[in-house]
Design goal:
The protein is an alpha/beta fold. It is built from 11 helices and 9 strands. Helix 1 packs parallel to helix 2 and helix 10 packs antiparallel against helix 11.
């Protein structure tokens, strides 16, 4: 029977040959060596396979899996979790990197706080040239002992979803279903994790995140995340609100707290996203009318 590593690194990648070396090297150089790196190649067309296989041949902690077809970004993230086995899990990307102490410090924090579900550090945000353009620090609310207050803050927080790249306990992550295939799924996943337990925040910026706008140009994010979204009506915010309500219902909050949290979801949808909800309905109506006139009965526009 194969030995289960302490930490699993899920590294979903698509055409990441330019930076995959750095991503693999920084994880293999961690001062916590009890780990596996599961590289899940989303049917890349560049040298990704060659690079990953060279590392798998040289170090038994690296495993390479290639998808027969492109599953979309979210599907590949989900498969990386499914193929890993360690009780602690971390997603990684081919163009980001971490300091050599990242895993040991986040692991120590989680071991010292059994009810916490996630530990993360600050993030240094780099542009496509490697220049640091921003530093993100975790918010104080992450460690609040109240699930209701954590859920409220996560729901209303419009910050980046950097926490998802922290070290996460596998059990609660698997229990909530990991990553789903709709736009905004990372925010719903973090909402569910926040309801499940505190997030631990560690000092410093030991995670390095790359934002390369040139690589994102012209991308339809809904289809990029999940190819099955092609042709759907542009009801992104409606879907997100529905999934947030479902997430609240899945957790064992007391009835009054669950009701308060559901009210919070609806208040945010109407209060902050009301115009967007109306615009999505209007646009969807236009597409349906156009489809009827064309005799197709279906929307004629890319998903959003």
């Amino acid at each position: 029977m194969a030995r289960i590593p302490l930490i699993s690194i899920g590294l979903p990648v698509y055409n990441g040959a330019a930076t995959l070396d750095r991503a693999l090297q920084c994880h293999l150089a961690q001062d916590e060596p009890d780990l596996e790196i599961v590289v899940v190649d989303n049917a890349s067309t560049d040298a990704t396979a060659k690079i990953a296989l060279s590392y798998a041949d040289a170090d038994q902690r690296v495993r390479y899996v290639r998808n027969e077809r492109n599953l979309g970004l979210v599907g590949n993230f989900a498969r990386a979790l499914h193929l890993s086995s360690g009780p602690y899990f971390k997603w990684a990307t081919h163009d980001d990197w971490i300091d050599s102490t990242y895993l040991s410090t986040t692991l120590a924090a989680l071991r010292a706080t059994p009810n916490a579900v996630l530990a993360c550090t600050g993030v240094a945000v780099h542009d496509g040239t490697g220049r640091v353009v921003e530093r993100w620090q975790p918010a104080d609310w992450m460690t609040d002992p109240s699930a209701l207050r954590r859920g409220h803050r996560q729901l209303w927080d419009r910050d980046e979803t950097h926490q998802m790249f922290g070290l996460i306990r596998r059990d609660p992550l698997v229990r909530i279903g990991g990553m789903q295939g709709y736009l905004g799924a990372a925010r719903v996943m973090l909402l569910e994790l926040a309801l499940a337990g505190p997030f631990l925040q560690l000092p410093g910026c030991a995670y390095h995140y790359t934002v390369d706008e040139s690589a994102r140009a012209g991308r339809s994010y809904s289809v990029y995340n999940d190819p099955s979204n092609a042709g759907q009506l542009p009801l992104r915010t409606w879907r997100l609100t529905r999934h947030q309500l479902a997430a609240v219902g899945r957790h064992g909050l007391p009835l009054h707290e669950r009701s308060a949290m559901r009210g919070d979801v609806l208040l945010r949808a109407v209060g902050q996203d009301g115009r967007r909800l109306a615009a999505e309905l209007y646009r969807s109506g236009e597409l349906l009318v156009r489809g009827r006139r064309a005799g197709t009965g279906s929307p004629d526009a890319p998903a959003r």
